[in-house]
Automatic annotation (TrEMBL):
Gene Ontology MF terms: DNA binding
Protein name: Site-specific tyrosine recombinase XerC
Sorted UniProt keywords: DNA recombination
Acyltransferase is among the record's keywords: no
Alphabetical list of Pfam families matching this protein: Phage_integrase
Domain Tyr recombinase: 3-186
One Gene Ontology term from the biological process aspect of the record: DNA integration
InterPro entries given in the database record: DNA_brk_join_enz, Integrase-like_cat_sf, Integrase_catalytic, Tyrosine_recombinase_XerCD
Length: 192
């Protein structure tokens, strides 16, 4: 399933999160209520690059103050790799505010929702918006693609952040095909 999902554009990301937060009425008249919990979980996936399975297990207590920074202290469910990356202060405050507003104890999971429920809700939203090829993994791919583009196309940086074992895996993951590479080379020609 993940290989079939596409990375979100920033516009799609904003529209999906906004629609989830505000709720909507389906064409058949079915009312989908606002869901801040799912919107927050997907926002964190897009901003931390974690898989949705890891986001749904996240606890505020798993974010440790380490000197002048915050860092994640978790083990990824899929890979069993320890993850100790920095959590930017703005994201920590966002998570902390969500926990306070939702009256969630720091030792309790932030999101009492299943992966299936997130997938089902996201499908309703994407159908409503007319988006195809989007799943929860699209938010992680959005993270990877944004980091790649905004950091001078540093594939190794993305590899490290996603904890991939090779840049080949990362290139495949963010959709860098040989045609893209050939086009990049062709567009770079600067003969004098």
């Amino acid at each position: 399933m993940n290989k079939k999902t596409v990375a979100l554009t920033e516009e799609q990301y904003r529209k999906i999160i906004s629609t989830i937060r505000n709720g909507f009425v389906c064409s058949d008249g079915h009312i989908v209520k606002p869901n801040n919990r799912i919107a927050t979980a997907l926002s964190l996936e897009a901003n931390l690059g974690l898989r949705i399975s890891d986001i749904l297990q996240l606890r505020l207590s798993a974010i440790i103050r380490d000197g002048g920074r915050y860092r994640l202290d978790i083990v990824e469910q899929k890979t069993k790799k320890k993850r100790e990356f920095t959590v930017p202060t703005d994201i920590y405050i966002y998570i902390q505010n969500y926990a306070l507003e939702s009256n969630i104890n720091p030792a309790t999971k932030l999101f009492d929702v299943s992966e299936r429920a997130v997938t089902k809700h996201l499908k309703l939203v994407c159908d409503y918006l007319g988006y195809t090829g989007i799943g929860s993994h699209s938010f992680r791919k959005y993270f990877a693609t944004s980091i790649y583009v905004n950091n001078h196309y540093d594939i190794n940086l993305v590899r490290v952040l996603l904890q991939h074992s090779s840049t080949v895996t990362t290139q495949r993951y963010i959709g860098l095909q040989s045609k893209d590479i050939e086009n990049a080379l062709q567009n770079h020609i600067k003969l004098f």
